[in-house]
Amino acid sequence: MGRKWNNIKEKKASKDGQTSRIYARFGREIYVAAKSGEPDPESNRALKVVLERAKTYNVPKAIIDRAVEKAKGGAEENYDELRYEGFGPNGAMVIVDALTNNVNRTASEVRAAFTKNGGSLGVSGSVAYMFDATAVIGLSGKTADEVFEVLVEAEVDVRDVMEEEDSVIVYADPEQFHAVQEALKNAGVTEFTVAELTMLAQNDLTLPADAQAQFEKMLDVIENLEDVQQVYHNVELEE
């Protein structure tokens, strides 16, 4: 199951010039989460999750505060949460999550990103059944055995605990995100290298070189669309 999450995050952060793009996406997501309930992470679990994720990307406090204050101020900027499912070269599977204030624009741009790069959009459910919604939480300074023992003692159920490079990565059901973090914080963990709610492919696909190049081009186009928040796929990309 290991996906080398720290490496993936670092690559993602360096790709768009991408720091500013990542910050903008978090600003939008924090605003939507804060507006969906109380703008307080202690009473708004969706907001708490996105703030924990933002920490691992070093999103500046000023961006976080601005998004929360915007929600508190009753801004009338409304976003729809959309999920697209599609296929790339050689049957590669892709899920695209978006936040948009213009559904028609986003649908058109996502469709074009697929079709102009050797892919196609599928219907709802055509791809998602091959992915599992998963909480991924990473930390350093402890071994996998130590982390597993902490979680067992705290009676927190997880799917797997693995050592990946210099981190220990915990895989769990999304509902266990906070429970895993709280158990580890109580055991002295003060910082997480990864804190994600993601969609993990049940089986990875290795593409031949020409198809992989085409897939990576399609992926870049999709990831750079303004309204796209997250992209998940089942392709084993070369490092």
TrEMBL record:
Top-level lineage group: Bacteria
Domain TACO1/YebC-like N-terminal: 3-74
Subcellular location: Cytoplasm
Domain called TACO1/YebC-like second and third: residue spans: 79-235
Keywords, sorted A to Z: Cytoplasm, DNA-binding, Transcription, Transcription regulation
Record's keyword annotation contains Transcription: yes
Gene Ontology terms for molecular function: DNA binding
Family: Belongs to the TACO1 family. YeeN subfamily.
Family annotation (PANTHER family): TRANSLATIONAL ACTIVATOR OF CYTOCHROME C OXIDASE 1
Protein name in UniProt: Probable transcriptional regulatory protein J2T15_003344
